[in-house]
Design goal:
Blueprint (H helix, E strand, L loop, with lengths): L3 E6 L14 E4 L6 E7 L7 E5 L2 E3 L5 H9 L2 H6 L4 E7 L5 H5 L10 H19 L5 E12 L2 E4 L14 E3 L5 E3 L5 E3 L2 H14 L2 E2 L7 E2 L2 E11 L3 E11 L6 H4 L3 H26 L10 H6 L7 E8 L6 H14 L11 E3 L4 H9 L16 E2 L5 H10 L57 H7 L5 E2 L5 E2 L2 H27 L16 H44 L3 H11 L7 H13 L15 H12 L4
Parallel strand pairs: 1-5, 1-16, 6-15, 6-16
Antiparallel strand pairs: 2-3, 3-4, 7-8, 7-11, 7-14, 9-10, 12-13, 14-15, 15-17, 17-18, 19-20
The protein binds adenosine-5'-triphosphate.
Length: about 625
């Protein structure tokens, strides 16, 4: 399903005049709801441009109408296991915060408090309808991206570290913030207390265009966990209030506001580039150019995404409004896969247990049907998925482990088996298993090949009931083999970690490839790959930090603060060691400020050449 894009035109504010209105909502067909935004061409006022969206809300639209039409219907999907992302986009002062957060009066409450109210209400209903068998818990995390750094809004500002929280890419393209607080909320009152406090931690300031302008992108994540007797289902609603783009010719922003503004505009520019790249079908989408786009992961995220485009009706916003309309119309083309989150079974579904017990006995030669060992991954969506769920055969999932399990003399009772969850980091969530992989629960009817190999001449015996008996010597041999493998893997990992930046080749495949050796090799390769990705991420983060310093330096220079510009250039230098232009700028600035020359060459660790080229490529002609 595509991203749903809806536009909302805000009403006139005090001091704004009817005669200045140029943006209007329209309908494609008489009597139908509005789906078109009309705005005159900037070159020819008599000619109108029309932009079509999924829905268009005019100036008279109340908070309640917007919520009931756009957000309330998504609650059902959220509780079916789909993630929901809502984000407000638009120029500064167009009503994004009003739409998402709103005012304190009941009628003014925005999408976020209403969403939470809906979540608690539905959660209570589910618990009641299930006679308490299912419980629903709600946990919040809330953070802001300020000057391209991530800060936890649920923690007091004095606990912030200057560099903010790091991001980590997870399997399946998701980006998560490391070290974020998560607070449980039991009811709306809990939420409101937390939310109001957290919003006081958000950076806002007065600009000429908005008396309470958000200087950061704020991301609220509402995690809903439904725990039933058999399974746990988790889904997340994300509500994002983006900072607004600013035309600094109109803001009269001072130094600090300009630096913020540059970070806001840059991230929004990257977002528009991502939207363009996705809608063109480019293979490379520049998500990594800003933290906001990495977190938003538009087109990579799963579930349902709604973009609320906030518009001012005024002529003074003409070009900015056109630009927002252009970006948003392209966003409509972005496909988001509606994939429900994995259900984690606490134990086998009752029906399967009954079937297993009745079906030929555990020790018999008949192979047991594969069961959902770890989690079920459903690519169907919405109601169709729910309807199809009953008819679908239970999917099978394997549990991968490197460890040899002590082989039971009789199979454990299925009803009490603990289900191990496959490590999410090791398996992409968007890989839909198409064929059942072998379960590693010991199958009494087969002697594992690894065991046969390790047992050597000490043959294990298969009893007439199909159970395996092992001699002490065989167990000893297995333990020794496992210890040797673990030590070898650890050594290999240490060597790889030592040479992580040089991207070591994967360890050579074992001469004799038993199933277990292959699993160990695969494990080592995955770990090496993860280390490589993390190293790449660290490099990328460092580079974007460097670029941020350069950006700040340029802003300071433009505003005439050469001392601050020098400080920013010098801070950027370690990220671009030996960069000739940068070194030249620092020398010139130091000269102008009457400071002694600096030993800028000390940062050139011999790797400057490659980075120099890189920066020039990205910045279009150097710093
Ligand atoms: N639909 C609306 N009804 C009434 N007032 C509105 C509406 N939309 C916006 N406003 C008012 O317009 C002003 C600017 O709105 P808001 O702060 O939400 O803009 P914003 O897009 O979040 O700006 P920024 O990006 O600078 O944070 C506020 O005073 C807000 O109350």
């Amino acid at each position: 399903m595509s991203v749903r894009v809806v536009a909302r035109i805000r009403p006139l504010l005090d001091g704004e005049h009817e005669k200045d209105i140029i943006v209007r909502a329209d309908t494609a067909e008489a009597g139908k709801p509005n789906t078109i935004v009309k705005i005159p061409s900037p070159k020819n006022g008599a000619e109108d441009f029309s932009f079509a969206f999924n829905s268009v809300y005019d100036q008279s639209t109340s908070q309640e109408t917007l919520y009931n039409s756009e957000v309330q219907p998504l609650l059902k999907s959220l509780f079916q296991g789909l993630d929901v992302t809502l984000f407000a986009y638009g120029v500064t002062g167009t009503g994004k915060t009003h739409t998402m957060r709103g005012g304190l009066k009941l009628a003014d409450r925005g999408v976020i408090p209403r969403l939470l109210s809906g979540v608690f209400r539905r959660g209570k209903k589910i618990a009641k309808d299930s006679d308490g068998d299912t419980s629903v818990t709600v946990a919040l995390s809330y953070y802001e991206i300020y000057n391209d750094k991530v800060f936890d809004l649920l923690e007091p500002p004095e606990q912030r570290t200057p560099m903010g929280l790091p991001l980590r890419a997870e399997a399946g393209g998701r980006t998560v913030v490391c070290g974020l607080t998560e607070r449980r909320c039991d009811d709306l009152r809990d939420f409101e207390k937390l939310y109001i406090e957290a919003n006081n931690n958000r950076v806002t300031a007065a600009t000429k265009l908005n008396a309470h302008s958000s200087r950061s992108h704020a991301i609220l994540r509402v995690k809903v966990t439904q725990s039933g007797p058999d399974c746990v289902r988790e889904s997340t609603a994300s509500a994002i209030d983006l900072a607004g783009s600013e035309d600094n010719r109109r803001t009269d922003n001072g130094k600090e506001r300009l630096v913020e503004s540059a970070a806001i505009n840059k991230s929004l520019f990257v977002l528009s580039q991502c939207i363009d790249a996705i809608s063109r079908g480019d293979r490379r989408v520049p998500y990594r150019e800003s933290k906001m786009t990495r977190i938003l992961s538009l087109g990579q995220n799963h579930g349902i995404t709604v973009m609320i485009l906030n518009l001012s009706p005024l002529r003074s916003y003409h070009l900015d409004t056109l630009s927002s309309l252009n970006v948003s119309s392209r966003a409509k083309r972005i496909e988001v896969r509606e994939i429900e989150n994995e259900v984690v079974y606490k134990q086998f579904p009752k029906s399967s247990v009954a079937a297993a017990h009745g079906g030929g006995g555990l020790g018999g030669g008949k192979r047991q049907p594969l069961q959902p060992l770890a989690n079920a991954h459903n690519v169907q969506s919405g109601n169709a998925a729910a309807a199809a769920a009953a008819a679908r055969p239970v999917k099978a999932f394997s549990v991968y482990t490197d460890e040899l399990k002590p082989i039971p003399t009789s199979r454990p009772s299925l009803a009490t088996s603990e289900i191990r969850r496959a490590s999410p980091a090791k398996r992409s969530s968007d890989q839909e298993p198409t064929t059942a992989r072998p379960s590693k629960l010991a199958r009494p009817s087969l002697l594992p090949s690894s065991l046969a190999a390790s047992s050597g001449s000490h043959h294990s015996s298969l009893s007439s009931q199909g159970t395996i008996t092992l001699s002490a010597a065989q167990i000893e041999a297995m333990v020794e083999k496992k210890v040797a493998e673990v030590l070898a893997a650890r050594m290999a990992a240490e060597q790889q970690a030592a040479a992580a930046s040089a991207m070591p080749p994967p360890p050579p495949p074992p001469a004799k490839s038993s199933g277990q050796d292959a699993a160990a090799t695969m494990q080592r390769r995955l770990e090496a790959l993860e280390r490589r990705i993390e190293a790449d991420e660290r490099r990328e983060d460092a580079r974007s930090d460097g670029l941020r310093y350069l950006l700040a330096a340029r802003q300071h220079k433009e505003s005439g603060d050469e001392a601050a510009a020098l400080r920013a250039y010098e801070s950027a230098l370690p990220f671009f060691p030996g960069q000739a232009k940068l070194v030249g700028k620092i020398r010139r600035l130091r000269g102008r400020l009457g400071l002694p020359g600096c030993d800028v060459g000390r940062h050139d660790g011999g790797g400057g050449r490659g980075r120099r080229d890189d920066v020039r490529g990205r910045k279009g002609g150097g710093v």
